[in-house]
Amino acid sequence: MAEIRLEGVAHSYDGGKTYALNPITMTWKDGKAYALLGPSGCGKTTLLNIISGLLKPSEGKVFIDGKDVTDVITDDRNIAQVFQFPVLYDTMSVRKNLEFPLKNRKVPREKIAQRVNEIAELLGIENDLDRKPSKLRSDLQQIVSLGRGLVREDVSAILFDEPLTVIDQNFKWTLRNRLKRLHLATGVTVVYVTHDQTEALTFADEVLVMDKGNLVQVGTSESLFLEPQHEFVGYFIGSPGMNFLDVEANSSVLTHNGKTIGKAAKAGLNGRHRFGVRPEFLIPSNRSGLEFKVERIEDRGVFKLVHLSKDDFKFIAKTDESYEAKVGGKAIFSFDPTRAFVYDAHQRAVSTVSPSSAGGN
């Protein structure tokens, strides 16, 4: 188990002309599970490789349990890493592939056999131990590769780089739960890279959301959903993502094309901003609120997505299954003011909306 600390870590692949990873300073606590979440190219794999030692940062320092390991090679960091695609010895059986990391560390034969059987049972590959990787489906090969990363019990941390990408969709749920159970049982520090918000939000104690080389917000799945402090978090997390609207603030009164949307809870807000509210927090109303035209309704079985338009903008509301409205007709929606946010020019949340103003006109 290990505490991982980054101090001003940044990286450029072109000598400083551009940065794939902008400066990050943070501490990952011993024994916790963290997810790096973001789209392709956002810098999450670069950050993971810096932690593991596969890549030396252009700037900053990496500490593991208080020791500066910035210049320490991967083998001496005592970290296991599982990659996006299988890394296996095809001339060896599955069993021997799992044994290999333990034999390298001269673990007693009896302990090796016990540990390999434990990992095989955890991953559901007990019946494949004597087969060659080339005889397995690609998703099973990746599960074996996952086992190689999990088999050691003496590692300080385990780093996962999108390990479930090629795994069958139905088995992903089972495997994710098993990995979570293993983490809780061992207490090893885990860093998990993914572009899949479901994987990140269900597996990690805390999620680090990244975009364009920047760490934009760190939080629990609940805080990221309920209190997105950056527009990208509102957009990227949630299905569908947050609704946004350009507004003008005048003494905190928010207007769009001269029509009042609400009033920011923060006093003295002026200038151009963005109003954001998640589809879940648009509330059907028979009285006050914003009047929309209903463009279409998607019935998802247990909820409905109501596509709305008003003047020059469109919103989506997520309602319960019982909601009824006529396509082409009018519908009134208000919003939960504690879950509606005002964002500045830097896409940062600067205010919620005053409860007395929710709904506009």
What is the name of the CATH superfamily of the largest domain? Answer: P-loop containing nucleotide triphosphate hydrolases
Which architecture name of the largest domain does CATH use? 3-Layer(aba) Sandwich
Round the mean pLDDT to the nearest integer and report it. 92
CATH level-1 class of the largest domain: Alpha Beta
The geometry reads as globular
The strand order across the widest sheet is 6-7-8-3-9-10
Write a brief structural summary.
This protein is an alpha+beta fold and 361 residues long. The chain folds into two domains: 4-231, Rossmann fold, CATH 3.40.50.300; 239-357, Nucleic acid-binding proteins (OB fold (Dihydrolipoamide Acetyltransferase, E2P), Beta Barrel). Helices cover 24% and strands 34% of the residues.
Please, could you describe this protein's structure?
The chain is an alpha+beta fold and about 350 residues long. It has two domains: about 230 residues, P-loop containing nucleotide triphosphate hydrolases (Rossmann fold, 3-Layer(aba) Sandwich), CATH 3.40.50; about 120 residues, Beta Barrel (OB fold (Dihydrolipoamide Acetyltransferase, E2P)). Helices cover about 25% and strands about 35% of the residues. The protein has a six-stranded mixed β-sheet with strand order 6-7-8-3-9-10, sandwiched between helices. A six-stranded antiparallel β-sheet has the order 13-12-11-14-20-21. Helix 2 packs across helix 3 and helix 2 runs parallel beside helix 4. The longest helix has 18 residues. It starts with a strand and ends in a 9-residue tail after the last strand. The mean pLDDT is about 90.
